[in-house]
Write a structure and sequence with these properties.
Layout: H1 37-42, E1 45-50, E2 53-59, H2 73-90, E3 95-107, E4 114-125, E5 128-137, E6 142-154
Antiparallel strand pairs: 1-2, 2-4, 3-6, 4-5, 5-6
Length: about 160
């Protein structure tokens, strides 16, 4: 598919400033106590957390948008996944991480400017944690809702993890 004003089949080139900021080699960002390179790449930032919940956000930049100019659906799903996964992980202080077992997303409105995700733990059964989350714009407009199931990972003596 070609862009308007381009010959069919011609590659569409974007200016370098639309590609987004380069990754820096400095200290790792902290996303609720973990270094998550993909969150750094997507510029997802931990805002706050409490018992059973997390709040994360991302400021949209051109490299995070779809062809219509709003936040890409994959970014919204990543925000839901990492926010709910962090809420699940923080529900058990001995957990070293989580594995996403299932993720459902319903897109409701466009993601514009800066979006926030509040994730909450609904229930924990053993190492399985059920969560839900809502993504909104800064003015409170609903962007997406998600539900996810996560499996807690725990460190084992003599190995990296139990999964």
């Amino acid at each position: 598919m070609s862009a308007p004003g381009h010959a069919p089949g011609a590659a569409v080139r974007r200016p370098a400033e639309d590609v987004g900021p380069p990754m820096e080699d400095g200290p790792a960002s902290d996303y609720f106590g973990l270094k998550i390179p993909f969150c750094e790449h997507c510029t997802i930032r931990a805002v706050d957390h409490g018992p059973g919940w997390t709040l994360s956000e991302v400021a949209l930049a051109p490299h995070l948008c779809n062809s219509g100019g709003s936040g890409h659906g994959g970014l919204t799903m990543t925000l839901l996944d990492t926010s709910m996964g962090s809420a699940a992980r923080l529900s058990d202080p001995s957990s070293v991480g989580v594995v996403t077992v299932d993720l459902h997303t319903t897109f409701i409105g466009p993601a514009v400017e800066r979006i926030q995700c509040r994730a909450e733990v609904l229930r924990r059964v053993g190492r399985t944690v059920f969560c839900e989350a809502t993504v909104t714009t800064t003015d409170g407009s609903l962007v997406a809702r998600g539900m996810g199931t996560f499996r807690l990972r725990h460190a084992r003596q003599g190995s990296r993890s139990d999964d």
